[in-house]
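Exercise 7. Given the components listed, write out the predicted structure of the assembled complex. Treat all entries as one system.
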Amino acid sequence: MIYQGKQKIWADYQKEIPDDHWFYVRSCIRQNFFPASEVTMLKIFREMLGKDMYETPHHTTCGGIAYHNECIPQETQMAIIARQFALMTEAGYENYTCSCITSFGLYCETIETWHEMPEVLERTRENLWKACRREFNIPKYLAHTSDLVFKFRKEIGALAKYRLVNKDTGEPLRVVEHIGCHYAKMFPSKGVGGAEYPYVLVGMAEEWGGNVIDYPERRHCCGFGFRQYLVRANRGYSVSNTHKKFESMEPFHPDFIVTNCPGCPYFLDRWQYVIAEQTGKTYGGNGQGIPVLTYEEMAGLVLGLDPWDIGMQVHQIAVEPLLDKIGIEYDESKKYEGTGGKPLPEPEFPAAIRCC
Amino acid sequence: MAKDNVVVIGGGPCGIEVSRNLRDMGYTPILLEQQSELGGHLRQWDRLFPEGVDARKVLKELTSDLRGVKWFTDATIDSIKKSRKGYTVNVDSGMTFESKAVILTTGFKLFPAEKKEEYGYNIYERVITNADLEEYFRTRKDSRIQDPKTIGFVHCVGSRDEKACNRQCSKVCCATAVKQASEIKELFPEATVYCFYMDLRMFGRSYEDMYLNAQKKYGVRFIRGRVSEVSEDIDGKLFVKAEDTLLGKPMKMKMDLLVLMTGIIPGESTAQYSEMLGIERGEDGFFAPKDTILEPCRTKDAGLFIAGTCTGPKTLPETLSEARATAIQVHNFLSK
Amino acid sequence: MIDFGYSLSKSNALKIENLDDSRFKALHKLEPDAYKCIGCGSCTASCSAGVFTELSLRKTLLSLQRGEGKGYIDQLQSCMLCGKCMLVCPRGINTRHLILSICKIYSVEQ
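Answer.
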């Protein structure tokens, strides 16, 4: 592998990301399945880096799930997005950042559509006015929160307590990075690093000491889609895609997977159990599977936040072996304690995959 | 004598042949070449299709008798000014030439393969281009080629490709691919060679025989389907994805070597001269002649001629024929 | 075993390095012109049996080269050896001999 070749391509796909003052919107999937991820990210940016990330309780979903499932037409979709932008305009911001990759792809798509077809933009303005009497401006900068973490990776690295290095052998951890399809495949110029060799997660992992693996099915979709898994009988198609990725990355012995889309870690984490039940095979070498992290969790771990505060206990694949490898201290007994003294319900242990 | 001067810009096979013919007709050609040697791309090739003639011999023949031709290498043109008398050509070395006619034989450039990011040129070691392979045939030195057992040729890299902003076909790469596939099979007889093509352009005399030979004698396997992506597996081998469109099934294969057939695109200077001299260019970026059928070497200016691959992809014999035709047209123009 | 209501799908991609082309090489020994086929489809188009059955000589030869061919070989039983394909083949392959050789190597009853 000629690393300089990749560096040349990364240099071609630079993206302008503003320093401060963003309007932040959350992700449906990420909030529900990785609840502490977004809290962690806001903590990192507001308290540790001192940035202004504004969030309003009035914001809604971007409508992506419904739109990609063909439950709502594009006009409705654009009106929903227009309302989000209206909230941003009313709060006095011009930098828009979203937590979900599908949202990011959808915002890019909508802004592009408005750019190419001004009559659609006019119609959307009318629709929004009729629906809720709001007006909006198109954001000046649109970034995904992984772009922001990427931009401040050096600052985070400077504050970091741990490095992505195996504490026993001193070797950098082998990281598999998985980029959400909607991040750069639709509009390669809007993603850091472009579509073929995205750099946003590579930059983070390498800055914090890890070694990123390039394996044949790196670009392959995890199989999330939206239509595929909605109907239960179709989920076999989704699982097969994830299975393909795991089969391809297995010879490289990755230590963990990091993703920036909220749906991807959900699938990559949960499908390992299904594959273990159906085929009897687990990946990762110790029968426990390969831990999957979101980039906020990776940042939080590296900065030394308590793993249970970051939400490691809701992962299906046990993250403890990874924490042990890095040397992060954690208290196993506090795993299901929950915040405010309210204990979390403990999960059942599956037969096919080891959880501890 | 100044009235006999004819400036020829570009010292590749076309420029050399134009100059020789003009000299034979009694003119003093001034041949200006940007690089340090005459010969253009012909210097980089090993053997020419369809018969496998040695490129070095051809180059030697072309440059063997340049008496009476004033040729200069390492010469970059600063400016060309047109007046009623003719053209004044200023070279960066300080030389200036006056000429009633100027012939542009500035040639072509090969498509930079790293632009097709999905093929991983300069990222995965075992991906090389057709030019790299010719260099290997000439020198037998390339660390990327280590006794390959499975070799693939990818046709149409950078040609017939909207994403690469090149709609045109580069004409000669199919014949080159078949030639190189046969040659590499001769060097590595145990290897299996695959050619991934969209269409096979075997238009010239004996090209079809070359194709038949590749199939029958060398057992080269032709797969109709374009390679979509290339990645590297843990053992360093390339993981290539394509579709066999004749069967209608996607294919995956591990290969030891992948050769990208990069196409012919307009040279760097084509745009510059077009600006400088007001020569029109086609949508594909090559010079557009006054009339593609009846006057393929003339431009709007009667004294300005264009010949060779700067007007579009061509084979070597076509280029040389065009050179000779242009020489006659220049002579007719200057004799008026 | 838990019944999830769905299962893994098999990939239909051809893995070329896994293919066993020993029989195709044996075919080449019997009929060297097997390598000359360009997949033009003239044989299939003129085939007498092809209008009534799934028989396609082009597909059969190509899939044998790719190491697959089970489904296609059985179709060869419909061939009447009429020779129309041989009349039209632009590469001059003796297609009747080719078909008989395929049947011999792949043990199909003719």
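Discussion: The longest strand of chain A covers residues 174-178. Strands of chain A lie at 22-25, 53-54, 95-98, 141-144, 174-178, 211-212, 256-259, 292-294.
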